[in-house]
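#onboarding

Welcome to the new folks! Below is a worked example of what a typical request in this channel looks like: someone posts a single protein sequence, and someone else replies with the predicted structure as tokens. Don't worry about understanding the tokens yet, we'll cover that in week two.

Example request:
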Amino acid sequence: MASPDLTQELTCPICLEIFTHPVSLECGHHFCSSCISRSWQKVPGDVSCPKCRQVFTQRNVRAARTLSNVVDKFREVKVTQPQEEFYCQEHEEKLKLFCEYEHKAICVVCGMSRAHKTHSVIPIKEAAQIYKNKLETSLETLQKQMDLSLHSKREREDGIFHMKAEVDRLRNEINSEFEKMHKFLFEKEELMKAELERKCNKIFEEMENNLTKTMDEMSSLEGAIRDLNAQLDNSGDAVEEDGVIDRVKGCRLIENNEEGKFDIQDLLKRSQMEFHKPGTGSTQLPVAIAGEPFKYIKVWREMRAVISPVPASLTLDPETANNRLIISQDLTSVTYGNEQQDLPEHPGRFDKCFYVLSSQSFTSGRHYWEVGLGNKPLWGVGVCRESVNRKGDITRSPENGFWVIARHPDCKSLKIPDVIFQRRVKPRKLGIYLDYEGGQVSFYDAEDMSHLYTFTDTFTGKLYPIFNPCNNNSGNNSEPLTLLSG
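Example response:
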């Protein structure tokens, strides 16, 4: 009785050969021990089953002893069984040859026939070896492509991971910065409200006192009026009866009765009572309280303490300026002069390029400053190392310690990014942001804060803001570069 063919069930999915030392994965699939080891060898971190792609955090494999015994028995049976032969259906001869033209196995008779006379025919075992070698080469190539794809996949995953981490960092930074601003503004709001209450309570107290005094005087006046009306009602008019005038009632106005209940002098004095107005209180808040717009400006200025980076107020260093550059008295603007100035020699002075540095330098932290460009058609602005060459011709590039952008027709020859000429609207005010530890120098159109360009590098030593107003260009570039106050 012929044994069932178990070749497919006992074949490793990786090498496509009968299992050798088979092992079992957690998902239940089996592989040769060496095959699965090679498959996982170059994979860092989590691995997966080559067949079902289930992911494993641990590289746990178990020796499949039962399967190993079955494989051993199968090999013994295959050795004792005669090898299956394939025969030509036309000539009933063994297929011992391979036609390379038609890519099929043929018998010796077919090989001698007219149909294959002009074809390249080789022994079938030789053909099997050739194609095996080709398949192995193809397999090796595919494996390399798979390795490349896995590497690319890891790069993409790492990129996503780092991008998410950067987004989380920025999100936390935004939360932190706005929490500081919210806290600062809330505290200022409460202080201003408390100060308003304190000042207004004092005013209200004075107004209430004046109102009380007014009501007291009103009460006194009402009493005097009431008494005068009562006495006048009681006095009546002199009445003539039978030619005799009765003045008894009239006399009561001036007589002092025995009980002392009425005094004409007191009545006259009260009738002359005057109302004393207790001050000219206004119904509007004093200007000192209601008209203080500067209190908000003050808060805005104080808020600079919680903003990072604080817009910097820079000044220019005349000792670094080329002798054709004219520095303003307040050291905040620079223009190109048509004639050279007689300036003292200084090792830090640019002698050929029209550059000047700021007096301030940075060795850490994040910083931001702005430069007024006006309508200048030519200029250059950025950051440079303290150690840059300042004498003779200079190649302005990051390799030489210059991180600058410019509006200049020779940008490319100067190795300066040509980002300004590409813009439809030229910036009139430039913002420069330096993140020393982050290794970034970024440029913005400061009017709408649109991004222009960012250099990424590693910074060491002092960095100086650097400015170049360029030549006058026949009078068309005479406007200054201006350092705007923070």
